[in-house]
Amino acid sequence: MDQDIEMVFDPNKNKFFRNGECIRWILQNAKSETIGRIAAFYTDKLIKDKDQPTGGIGFFECLDDQEAANRLFDQAKKWLKGKGMEAMDGPINFGERNRWWGLLVDGFVEPSYCMAFNFIYYRNLFEKYGFQKYYEQYTYHRFIYKNLNPLFREKAERIAKNPRYHIKHLEMNKLEKHAEDFRIIYNKAWVKHSGTYEFTRAHAKALIDSMISIIDPKLLWFTYFDDEPVAFFLALPEINQIIKFLNGKMNLYGKLLFKYHQYRKTVNKAFALLYGVIPEHQGRGIEGAMTLAVAEVAWDPSFQYKEMEFSWIGDFNPTMIKLLDQLGATVCKTHITYRYLFDREKEVKPPPKL
Questions:
Q1: pLDDT confidence bin for 48, thresholds 50/70/90
Q2: What is the β-pairing status of strands 307-314 and 269-277?
Q3: Which domains does the chain have, with CATH numbers?
Q4: pLDDT band of 192, cuts 50, 70, 90
């Protein structure tokens, strides 16, 4: 959607401007025709490594012309150097990692909402300039009707025998409570990972509120130990199956068209957004129990969704990769996040394994 892109560069709507800066350029040829664009930025959240301050570039578009691409990359590098950066990652988002992050290098199929989709030749433009792979992130796919690995049922039965565990899907009349449950789990399960930060109460509530118009309660699940929230699985309808009809515009006609397709249940694919288990409860079988709980609902013939995608699985996260392999999911898309070190004698080191 046009508004999604515009919000990234609006200081009144993008909180990353509070502790960061962003600039954009377009590149024109001798005929004043625009042949490329790029954004460069940095934030306190992005610069976690104080020994190597790293900025970012993103929203890159260019003709298949290495000289033109080099001009764009050079301009971004020069600006970031002037801001004290020693490296740049790209293409990434001036915002959350679940949007426009990484360069698509494999799986040029139907794109997901707000996921980076680009021409195949972009990889050569990045790598010939000198960008090196920092990490890969995968999108996994699974048809919902497929049977589950018996291992998940065994894990689910183990949890079911413990009366202190309870698995529930989201209830629309308890959104504020669920927002707080999500915040507690996320901050315990994810904040230690690179590129993440703590959710405040306001931020968690805003996230849930932003999804109200498309939430399907049977796609969002929580696990509780007694009354303590210990795990979540958040998925959403893959609304790009509707968005593609709107030509980027959420005007009155677009809103009516969106509602029409919701009513017609055009969307047949769900999109796993986030998953987390707090450290104290990992390895106990919660993953299997939640998977089975979702599956038992999904196997109902009336269930709207026939496919599920799991995005943003970093190659540095072998635990999640193993889990998805056991689930019977397969990689359908691969994105690469590149890093370019300004000191060309240095070596790009991959992030640590989780």
A1: low
A2: parallel
A3: 2-136+336-341 (3.40.630.30), 145-305 (3.40.630.30)
A4: low
